[in-house]
Amino acid sequence: MSPEPSPLLAVDGVVKRFGGFRALDALSFSVGAGEILGLVGPNGSGKTTCINVISGLYRPDGGSIHFEGRSIGGLASHRLVHAGINRTFQVPRPFLTLTARENVEIAIAYGASREPPGDAETLLASLDLAAFADQPAGQLNSAHQKMLDLARALATGPRLLLVDELAAGLNPAELERVAIKLKELARSGIALLVVEHLMGFIDQITDRIIVMNAGKEIFEGRLAEASRNPQVVEVFLGDENAA
Amino acid sequence: MPRIVRHVLLILLPVVGAFAILPSVYGNQLLLFNFMIFMTLAQGLNIIYGFTGYLPFGYVGFFGAGAYGFSLMVIHLHAPPLIALMVGGSAAVALAVLLTPLFRLSGAYFSIANLAAALAVFQVVSNPNLESVTKGPYGISLSGVFDPALAYGTALAVLAATIGLVIYLRNSHFGMALKAIREDPISASMAGINVVRERVIAWLLSALVAGLAGGVFAWYVSVFYPETVFSVEFTIFAIVFALFGGNATVTGPILGVVILYGIYNAVGISTPQYFQLLYGALIMGLVMFLPNGLASLLQRWGIDVP
Amino acid sequence: MFTYSLLAGLLFGLYFSLIGLGLNLVFGVMRIVNLAHGDFLMLGAFLAFWLFTLFALNPVPAIAIAFLAFAIVGLPLYYLLVPRLLRAKDPEMLSFILFFGLSQVIEAVTTIAFGTSERSIPGDQLGHAVAVVAGFFAGHKVDTGPVELLGQTFPASWVASGVASGCAVLLVYLYLYRTRLGYLTRAVMDNREEAIATGINVHRVSAVAFGIGLGLAAAAGVFAPFMLGSITPAMGAEVTVTSFAVIVIGSLGNPLGTVLGGIVYGISYVFMQSYYSSWANLLPYVLLIAILLVRPSGLLGRRVRRA
């Protein structure tokens, strides 16, 4: 499936520096509505930085980011949430002293973008968290905390969801459920950018992928073609990836 | 019945009722007044520390600003006490607005900077050069507004309003948002919370509480030195009460004040050094063994503390 | 007036550097905010006072005694308080409150023991030592009066404090950069997790650093009666705030920065006293807030602490 003519998210030549180090080096790509774009690359290639910049945690030092035609580079995170962007965290960060339900409620109360997202009960149930609704988030195991983090992100009704290494630590059954859920979200029109190390998971859910290295994109296309691209292979040489 | 009504009935009414009735059975009105002031301050600190995790070591600065705002209105403009009280509260809020850039700093830096700010305000207010305005180091002596009964009643109203505010926070999305900010500001912003704005609102509310407490204190005592209303004792007390009682609960600071200030009055008034020693040791013990206060102990045992 | 202020500022600056050095070392190594720092300085001052009053001991050897005594006290104190603190969720904030409690305890105990009256040591005591040293170098007996430097006269005690502080700073530098333990200390300052991972006994290094930090505070305290005026048990708080101003100006965790911060602070301090003395009390607070807001990473720009 090729991207639509006017992509939902357009990242154009984005630069992010930390001191002298260029974490993002003129990165460019785009994502269309209803598309699942995979973002892969060796450690340190800038994948999480990319998500951090798009979600407002860092300001870009150069280039531009457009969402639904609006320039959003440098806007504060909460404003991006209201505009319809959200993300999950590599290490889940739920509000530990609040209950699971409250974690979702607060996001609904403060973060809802244009579309009404539904209520906390439904959202928790859709991620198999209904049983934990009244437990403090700190008591959930890490897999459930990841799902709660996803619930929090979805509670704000995003049209673009950035997923940061959701698969790590999930067992095959959980992986399967998450894959189904993500594809369901895409079918409802949400654009997803999925950062992953687990190639099998990527293969299962994405339409196309971007391979990053040293802050730049070095390949764009289908996963199968990527494994035949010599530059990609070289970049991953020595990198262990369970397929 | 909804939680908020339950909290009002179980906590707010008994406390207000107690302080309303006690003066007629217990002679030491000053003691009761001080109890109320400390309870108000502890709750005020609770708003900013318990709910957002920032600990203003210079919290007494707002108290002093309120006291001086009140006093200057009475001295220079002969304002009626209730108007002067509102000005006092506004003075504290104005100071808080001035200090909002401090939120760029994290944890301990914020605390130190805030302490420095309060000490700076004290130095300015007590400077002999400003004697014509603030009476400098010679202290304030208010004439014409001395009315302990009305002042007591107003203090009670301020306490009631403050407890009411904290009950509201405990039961509202705003309070939840503050706790979220305290836990993880980044996650909070990804839940759509405007971290800076909500935090500033809590900060201003907390300052307002201390300012009103300071203003009504000035009204009640009518005579005080700058050291009195900028005394670090107030901050120590408020911190210990809030720490002891546990954060972000309504009853925590109330419990803390009742137990600790009660002990203090039984033991330490005449020997301030022993109070200082006791409280210093208490702070150390709390931090080492019960950093989330008494309320956390109860919560650990499964009791939901309001 | 200007040259006088500048040179006096330098002397005071060296002294303030010494004051800040202990605090900076403790913070740099274990990220602990020792709010009782000024109170340890006060204890050192009282130690010197009592040694002088009871045993007629000249302050100069008292420096070494104060340093050693408190360095030794620091070791068990570290193990008692700090490891538990570092395991908590927010050690920086909790350490702040814990050491605040400690400072109250120290202040209370000292007040109970010694009362609130001000104590002082005659200025010529330090001057005597200066005279002995100067006489040694000059080859003949030297007067114990005021010392002349570049055409300006200063009390001998100021010069002695400045010189001694400079020596202490130098010794700390030598410790950090020329001894093995100092090398390990710098490793821990740089990256605590990695130091643990490479097998360095971080607690032992930290305990020594903590002891040295307290020792430095106490040693600085010996000069306090001469540089800061009379001493009381309640003087700790303001010294602590001043120390913070010094180390924040000079960039946290950077020992060289503390020297720079101390000198900047010292010169500002003396100039304020000379030209705007009635507002001089405001200086530490205003400077601290200004630097925290304008350039929180300090003049040497490392380790920004942003919320």
**Count the helices of chain A. How many?**
9
Helix content estimate of chain A: 25-40%
Structural class of chain A: alpha/beta
The H-and-E topology of chain C, N to C, reads as HHHHHEEHHHHHHH
> Structural class of the secondary elements of chain C?
mainly alpha
Q: State mean pLDDT of chain A (0 to 100 scale).
A: 87
Please count the helical segments of chain C. 12
CATH fold call of the largest domain in chain A = Rossmann fold
CATH class of the largest domain in chain A: Alpha Beta
Biggest interface and residues each = B-C, 44 and 45 residues
The major pleated sheet of chain A works out as:
6 strands, mixed
* Unreliable spans of chain C: 303-307
Percent range for helical residues of chain C?
over 70%
How much strand content do the residues of chain C show? under 5%
| N-to-C CA distance of chain C | 43 Å
Q: Can you tell me the number of structural domains of chain C?
A: 1
Unreliably modeled segments of chain A: none
Your description of this structure?
The complex is a heterotrimer of chains A (243), B (306) and C (307). Chain A is an alpha/beta fold and 243 residues long. Chain A has two domains: 1-84 and 159-243, Rossmann fold (3-Layer(aba) Sandwich); 91-158, no CATH class. Chain A has nine helices and ten strands. In chain A, the strands form two sheets. Chain A has a six-stranded mixed beta sheet, sandwiched between helices. Chain A has a four-stranded antiparallel beta sheet with strand order 2-1-4-5, with helices on one face. In chain A, helix 3 (100-111) crosses helix 4 (120-126) and helix 3 packs parallel to helix 5 (142-155). Chain B is mainly alpha-helical and 306 residues long. Chain B has one domain. In chain B, 77% of the residues lie in helices and 1% in strands. Chain B is built from 15 helices and two strands. Chain B has helices at residues 3-25, 29-52, 60-77, 81-99, 107-125, 131-134, 148-171, 173-183, 185-189, 195-221, 226-229, 232-245, 251-267, 272-289, 293-300, and strands spanning 140-141, 223-224. In chain B, strands 1-2 form a two-stranded antiparallel ribbon. In chain B, helix 7 (148-171) packs antiparallel against helix 10 (195-221). Chain B is globular, with a radius of gyration of 19 Å. The two termini of chain B are 15 Å apart. Chain C is an all-alpha fold and 307 residues long. Chain C has one domain (14-235). Helix content of chain C is 74%, strand content 2%. Chain C has twelve helices and two strands, in the order H-H-H-H-H-E-E-H-H-H-H-H-H-H. In chain C, helix 1 packs antiparallel against helix 11 (255-275) and helix 2 packs across helix 9. Residues 303-307 of chain C have low confidence and may be disordered. The chains are: A alpha/beta (243), B mainly alpha (306), C mainly alpha (307). The A-B interface holds A 55-57, 76-78, 81-82, 86-87, 89, 93-98, 102, 105-107, 109-112, 152-153, 155-156 and B 173, 176-177, 179-180, 183-184, 186-195.
